[in-house]
Amino acid sequence: MSGTDVPVSPTAEGSAIDPLVAAAAGYPSRYPGGLAAQPAGRVAVLTCMDCRILPSEVLGLEAGQAHVLRNAGGVVTDDALRSLAMSQRLLGTTAVMVVQHTRCGMTGLDDEAFRRDLEADAGRRPGWPVVPFTDDPQANVRAALAELRDCGYLTHRDDIRGFVFDVDRGDLTEVDAG
Ligand SMILES: [Zn+2]
């Protein structure tokens, strides 16, 4: 194949994933290995996928210490409950820490318009449930705590706490469940 025949692909100038793969090449030398699948800290963290939050940095987590579940908003979805139920029943965690944050990208999202646009592009409507999300992160965390504490799928509901991470200051504030 001559140079002019090389097909143009989205990866022609390199994939956005390449630097991550390169970084991973240096990881084995730092990885402790020999860890159990059961989190040593017996805690599961539910937080937003926001790129400004690095749970291991903020919470001082090492490999083997905690489950970290992430989704858009750090909200209690069916899939989050599925993972938390497995975390508790199969892998021995007993506490749930919810961490949402200020200036979340989901704030002000018109859920109905978002789903309508997706349907227009994809030809079918997403089946995901609507998760209420307000402009008040404290209120959102309270709603998440209430839902988790009321969820019979979770074996352990005595140690469920919620926090708001400030993406400007980098600090964590506990939310009174009220
Ligand atoms: Zn967010």
Mean pLDDT: 91
Q: Count every helix, treating DSSP H or I runs of 4 or more residues as helices.
A: 5
Count all strands and give the number.
Answer: 5
Helix content: 25-40%
* Widest sheet: strand ordering: 2-1-3-4-5
Stretches where pLDDT is under 50 for at least 5 consecutive residues are none
How much of the sequence lies in strands comes to 15-25%
Function: Catalyzes the reversible hydration of carbon dioxide to form bicarbonate.
GO molecular function: carbonate dehydratase activity; zinc ion binding
Family: Belongs to the beta-class carbonic anhydrase family.
Organism: Microlunatus kandeliicorticis
Layout of SSEs?
Elements: H1 18-24, E1 43-48, H2 55-59, E2 66-71, H3 78-89, E3 95-101, H4 111-122, H5 137-149, E4 160-165, E5 172-175
Parallel strand pairs: 1-2, 1-3, 3-4
Antiparallel strand pairs: 4-5
This protein binds zinc ion (ZN).
Family: Belongs to the beta-class carbonic anhydrase family.
Pfam family, one: Pro_CA
Protein name: carbonic anhydrase
